[in-house]
Amino acid sequence: MIIKKIAALVSAGRHPVSGEARHCRNDSLAMGIGLALTKKINAISPNAGSTNKTSLRVMHAGNPDNAALKDYLALGAKNIDVIALTAECNIIDSLANELTNTDLILTGSRAENGQDSGLVPYLLAEKLSFSLVANALEVELTPEGLEVLQFLPKGKRRSVIVQLPAVVVIHPLAPVELRHAYAQQVTGNISQHPSLRFTPVMDQDNGLQWQKQSILRKPIKLKARENKSGHARMLSATVSENKGGAVVIDGNSVEKAQVILRYLREHRLINF
Amino acid sequence: MQMLNYTGFNYSVTALFWLASAALTIGLWRRTQLWRAGQPAAFLWLNLLAIPKRYFVDLHHVVSREPYIARTHVATAGGAVATLALVAVNYGLMMYSAALNWAILSATTIMLGGVFFIWLRRRNAPARLSRGAWSRLPYTLAAFAIGLLIISLPVPIISGSVALLALLLLLAGSAELALGIGLGGPMKHAIAGLLHLAFHPRQERFSGKLSTALKPLMLENGQYGVSKPSDFKWNQLLGFDACVQCGKCEAACPAFAAGQPLNPKKLIQDLVIGLSNDEKSGATDASFAGSPYPGVAVGDHSGSIHAPIIPLLIPAETLWSCTTCRACVQECPMLIEHVDAIVDMRRNLTLTQGSAPGKAPQTLENLRETSTVGGYDRNARYHWAVDLDVKTIQKNSPVDILLVAGEGAFDMRYQRSLRALVKLLKAANLDFAIMGALERDTGDTARRLGDEATFQMLAKQNIETFNSLTFKRIVTADPHVMHSLKNEYPAFGGHYQVLHHTTLLAELVSSGQLKLEKSTETRKLTYHDPCYLGRYNGETEAPRTLLKSIGLQINEMERSGLRGRCCGGGGGAPLTDIPGKQRIPDIRIQDARSIDAELVAVACPQCTSMLEGVVGKRPDVLDIAELLASALDQNVEPAR
């Protein structure tokens, strides 16, 4: 199996607390997998000419001046191709137009910001008629095709082989070590992509009409307050000892319920 | 006939003298070529004249902490220098005067006496001393002294064999002195050490000032720290070459004591291997004859002047074990700057590879994205003060004192100390304000971890904020914040008067503005000096004065004041968290236990959390502000 062109799609993230522009971690993982895969393939055939080398193209559709893009440079992107679009534009058509000849498209699975819906990989795969694998943890090139290790709940994993061209959606828990290096941020380059030959399509579902509301408060788990000192908490975390509580095995259901009620009343978690 | 023999003998000593001088000159030239491989650094030739003062005052001040070896060295080196000078006149200039021979005789006797005591100590040497070539030194020096002693005897040497013996001894000794310097033998310390005093990278140290601020990197010029030995400044290389392998740094290093893979002496020696070899020589650290990095075998690492230091010459874990406590620098008799070298190498790892281990990358990301170490909301930094009725500083409303809380403000434990401090400031009726959401982290942790880019970003933002506010002094309870603001921000244009809270409180107590009663505390108390307050800022007295002012007696631990042992919390060491045999705070609490202290007074949020993190039965840890607040005169000022 030969793979020439790999693309990693990166989006602009925001810090959940400070709101500062930053990389979207999941997208960085996708880019990291792309960088490692490219390096590995090129290491196998080091004498290939520059035209035969596998290349990774890091792409972003949106504002080329977004400060978040610098993070991707620091994390190892030599160059970021930006399709300059405003918020009202539909990015799928522009991206599909640019990525037609790509063998493998890597994306993150969760969006952080604005209209980023998390649907981009699916819409893109549909538009380009590529295969799609979601929840990918590891990606490896084999003679049969692209071998993808998928995340399944409860520690299960599944290995699938996918034929190229394909869109692979990277899971947030993919084991990639991200290394942020300032020197790479300085030497890296953000270039607006010149080959945009058509007018961007306006999004029909115009995001500007969306209404925003604050999230609903999550239900709070009833839990007895601990009145232990910090030192005592440290001890109970480091020294194995009885953490308190009682296991009620004897008695009928009413008696057992009485024990629970007594506990809740004792800790003032209910008042009846 | 005998007269002629005697003259011939004199001529041979003269020949030997000039031969050795030539060898020394060539060797010295070779050595200077090695140092010159480093980067350019500003220096003054005039400083060569300052060497005697710097030697007898600044250097001797450190050496004399160990009187035995100080006296021994005075005898040996003083005797040797006098001998060499006299030989140069008497034999070099072919005077052959009997009177000068008498002088040579007495100088060599003094030298021989010194050598005898060196030899005596070498027989039962402490583990910190290097062996190898250094074990040879008493013998070669003795050979030199005895050879000259025989030659300068007032009775003419008749027997040819005695003369021959004397010449052979002298030859062996001269080889150590003359060839040894060029070939990197132990005696190179004499020349490199003296030149290092003249061209030291921190000249301020010799004017009686503390010089502890790291030097800024010119990031815009592509300066990303040190990756190969030739990236060091030439005078740093010269400094490494001055090392005498006495191992005082090793004995003081908290990471070494905790069994983490760091030994400052070995680090400097590895850099010497790097600076004195080229690619072809393939030199390894196999000949190092001292304590290794704990848990790292000697002999597996090699380096050369233009080869990457990490990981070929020095393992990365070695650098990340350092707490930047400067105990090694404090102890070094050759005034070598170990911490600067470590941070220089860390800078390269962080800035070009982003390879800081453990929680460090997360912390650096937090600093970049939230301007806090823990990734907190900056608006939440002063939540602990919400019920204390404290002013938050506003633009255009001047205050006397700006209280900067630092990262400790997010820690529930340290908030108690900060509340106590606010209570004291209010009791003293001071005009002060907290910084509120305007405060960003000073970037101290980022800088120690080598992330100069993030530090400079935060420093510039903070300076902009400070310059938009009106205040007279900054007060902080965090010595790390203090060090950054006071010592490191001036390089970026931020000049402020910064006080540690203990300094301010001591001032208030002595002026009577803050009235305190005697403390009711009866437990046995000791005080733990924060490195960034003591060694970095020289403040060891104010905390002690304060404790005494409320009637508490301080029982000093084995290592205190400027030689205090680190808590393990500095330099990002708790973040990189390099495994060792034990934890540094456990060692420090053991110091307190061994004097039966029941209470440890601290003055730093890092020390508080490190020492309180020790499990098992241990002394209580209280900030000085807490102890003082409990001794406030309740009748004078209703503390809210």
Structure description:
- The complex is a heterodimer of chains A (272) and B (640).
- Chain A has 272 residues and is an alpha/beta fold.
- Chain A is built from 7 helices and 11 strands.
- Chain A is elongated and about 75 Å long.
- The mean pLDDT of chain B is 92.
- In chain B, the strands form 2 sheets. Chain B has a 5-stranded parallel beta sheet. A 3-stranded parallel beta sheet of chain B has the order 6-7-8.
- In chain B, α1 packs parallel to α6, α2 crosses α7 and α7 packs antiparallel against α8.
- Chain B is mainly alpha-helical and 640 residues long.
- Classes of the chains: A alpha/beta (272), B mainly alpha (640).
- At the A-B interface, α5 and α6 of A face α14, α15 and α18 of B.
Strand content of chain B: under 5%
User: Remind me, CATH topology of chain A?
Assistant: Rossmann fold
Percentage of residues in helical conformation of chain A: 25-40%
Terminal Cα span of chain B: 103 Å
According to DSSP, the number of beta strands of chain B is 8
Rg of chain B, please? 28 Å
Q: What is the spatial order of strands in the main beta sheet of chain A?
A: 9-8-7-10-6-1-4-5-11
The domain tally of chain A reads: 1
Structural class of chain A: alpha/beta
Q: Quick one: overall form of chain B?
A: elongated
Distance between the termini of chain A: 70 Å
How many domains of chain B? The number is 4
Low-confidence stretches of chain A: none
Sketch the major β-sheet of chain A.
9 strands, mixed
Low-confidence stretches of chain B: none
CATH class of chain A: Alpha Beta
The overall strand count of chain A is 11
Q: What would you say the CATH architecture of chain A is?
A: 3-Layer(aba) Sandwich
Strand content of chain A: 15-25%
Helix/strand order of chain A = EEEHEHEHEHEEEEHEHH
